[in-house]
């Protein structure tokens, strides 16, 4: 993918999407806001995931910095690893007041479902951040290092249940597949369960009262699990990317002996066919967000890497779609529709 090394899959290809939000922000749950709002930002998965955190962090900053006029509402429309939200964008063609946070997870789901052209037909706005992936286990896990986990994984691949907050072709799926290949395993032996974002993955990894975890190993972005990482509820075995996470005693995958260097990304798109003045307004708004000190600090706090606007987003998305498709073929993984 864009900027991806052959030894990895999608290194700086994953781009940052921030959210376009306005001064007074209505943080709705999972229902769409009324049609009377001046500007809306859709999160195409459940609350608590990376898209959700990106949108709500951006909304808060835009309001606090006085960068917006009127009201910008954030709402969640989850389902099918973001494809329900993608369908909504197509139905809203020409609506310049609607934006959607998206990233490699949604792009991967679209490619896997044969709907990449639908995504590429949206109006690209901006790329704002990249993010490493983390490989983590619950506090109760018997594994204290990535090496311990991989040794068990090699002996009995089916005994290690992997889970991630994206569908086939998304970052939380591609990272463990790359890790398996680096560990000398066939990716098709990986027992992987997709979840609809980090908010959906969390209870599967942590379990609950009278309920054992549904997965043994979780793969996600660090920002979605920072409170659990800091409290010790989850233990990070390794982090993708070039550097360790600040304050987290876990090696990079390279330091742990695995030739994988991987990064996720997020961005913002609008429906197809919106007026050019609406495109310009969104880009100015998100550009002001991306260059603000508050956003820079928020990215640092969340383990994100800020992207300064300037990328040709349309070309980037097309390249990413090709890379995801090629990577899945290279790994010997057939594309398939994500679960609903």
Task: Walk me through this protein's architecture.
By secondary structure, the chain is an alpha/beta fold. It has two domains: 39-130 and 265-330, D-Maltodextrin-Binding Protein, domain 2; 132-239, 3-Layer(aba) Sandwich (D-Maltodextrin-Binding Protein, domain 2), CATH 3.40.190.10. Helices cover 35% and strands 17% of the residues. It has helices at residues 50-64, 83-91, 104-112, 116-120, 146-155, 171-182, 198-206, 226-231, 276-290, 293-302, 313-330, and strands at 39-43, 72-76, 98-103, 123-132, 134-138, 161-164, 191-194, 217-220, 234-239, 263-270, 305-306. Helix 1 links the parallel strand 1 and strand 2 (72-76). Helix 3 packs across helix 11 (313-330). The two termini are 26 Å apart. Residues 1-37 have low confidence and may be disordered.
Quick summary:
InterPro entries: BUG, Bug_dom1, TAT_signal. 35% of the residues lie in helices and 17% in strands.
Topology:
Elements: E1 39-43, H1 50-64, E2 72-76, H2 83-91, E3 98-103, H3 104-112, H4 116-120, E4 123-132, E5 134-138, H5 146-155, E6 161-164, H6 171-182, E7 191-194, H7 198-206, E8 217-220, H8 226-231, E9 234-239, E10 263-270, H9 276-290, H10 293-302, E11 305-306, H11 313-330
Parallel strand pairs: 1-2, 1-3, 6-7, 6-8
Antiparallel strand pairs: 3-10, 4-10, 4-11, 5-8, 5-9
Helix pairs in contact: 3-11
Protein name: Tripartite tricarboxylate transporter substrate binding protein
Signal peptide: 1-28
Keywords: Signal
